[in-house]
Hints:
By secondary structure, the chain is of the alpha/beta class. Among the domains are: 1-14 and 31-177, Rossmann fold (3-Layer(aba) Sandwich); 408-496, GMP Synthetase, Chain A, domain 3. The chain contains 15 helices and 26 strands. It has a five-stranded mixed β-sheet with strand order 13-14-15-16-17. The chain has a four-stranded mixed β-sheet with strand order 3-2-12-11. The chain has a four-stranded parallel β-sheet with strand order 5-4-6-7, with helices on one face. It is globular and about 70 Å long.
Amino acid sequence: MSREIADITARRALLSPDNLAMEELVGGQRVTYRGLEDRAARAASLLADGGVRMGDRVAILCRNRIAFFEILFACAKLGAILVPLNWRMPAAELRPLLADCAPCLLLHGAEDTGVVRELFQPGLVTLDLDAGYAQRRGAARPHPGRGGWPADDIWYLLYTSGTTGTPKAVIYTYAMAFVNYVNISQPIGLSGRDRTLNFLPLFHTAGINLHTLPTLMAGGQVLVLPGFDADVMIGLLAEGRLDHFFGVPAVYLQLSQHPRFDQVDLSRVRHWGCGGAPLPDVLVRRYAERGARVCNGMGMTETGPTAFLGDPDHALEKIGSVGKPQIMVGVRIVDPLGRDVPVGQAGELLFGGLGVTPGYWRQPAANQAAFTEDGWLRSGDIARCDADGYYYIVGRLKEMFISGGENVYPAEVENVLTQHAAVLEAAVIGVPDPQWGEVGRAFVRLKPSQPAPEPEELARFCRDRLAGFKVPRQFLMVAEFPRTAAGKVQKHKLDRQQVNP
């Protein structure tokens, strides 16, 4: 018997046909599970009639909308591969990605028509989701689909966010989707009665998988926003319309600065999750004061993504931890020779299991570098595990620098800096130094309501809380950080950032 995943929309239409599946908060479009299956099946016929075959790539460039997911499921019915593209990229950056994945069709929203015109090339068919797509889909016959989806086949490709360099396309299989569903639904108690919000960009793994795709697999409701909107999100929280919430630290920071934040009962959300980057301790405590125990987690695009997640009962006791490895992920912490380290010691974090990507699209050299000889994925993260089984991400191997023979992990220094009353965010990098080899350079965003501290004050603040070799030698004030679409700071661009005088 072949290893297959059931056709998700077809099965959901059978199990809970009349339950609301998705609702667009802008425009009010709503669709039940029966309707989602019908739309996906008709979209599959539309694609097939346009020449899309098994294994073909279908690119999509759009803001968050129901149509993205019906096309994701349509590709699964055909065995085609969806390639979500980053709408924040200009045509010059998108062009190499199209050359890499070679799609036969590019679907896009009206807002990206100008970029798509720049990307036009012979043989690439384009289709505007806002001009004729719905009518053509409605006129198509429902496609019978493949019945089941082979677990190890490619479902979609996600280009890495490029925090350190050129994006690579991470392969996502149907098995990865199922494993992520298990890994996230178990700790948060996801059920068909739950409502979640889809607002993170769909070319990022969190936009698809935290928690939208698992919620659709469970039969719950997904509320869709085109993108981040603090006013709408605060309103949803105040109305008690969300049962689960997942955001990156930048989202938590912006919501905490909303004028209505202190009036909203955050305890009405059953589970708060955070990932993508470390959530500063000060924000964890700020949300706890409002009744929300935010659970830090950790994963990678390459892990599907859910690997670690904290639990509400220990969110404050184990502050700074990313929790424990979830049920369908294997983890190891190893030294430079690949040996497992003792409890409490730091080393590189490795991942294994069915939820790990088989590799990068047409990147044999990158695949060889990413995996150990016995098949473990190298995360590039430095981690440690305490005696209770809780894991902590100490830093990134590529970000760690050595000052006077001592290892310095920027994440630790950044966490201390954000505890200063005037500091909103901080990012630290290592720079060459003739005496110590490398020293820290801190880039600091200040809170608008606070006077700017002198660099000497920030240095004293750090020195009271950190060993001397960890204290940055420079403190540069910036208005904003260069970021990926998921809110991660692009540290390789920091030295090109405009510094405030």
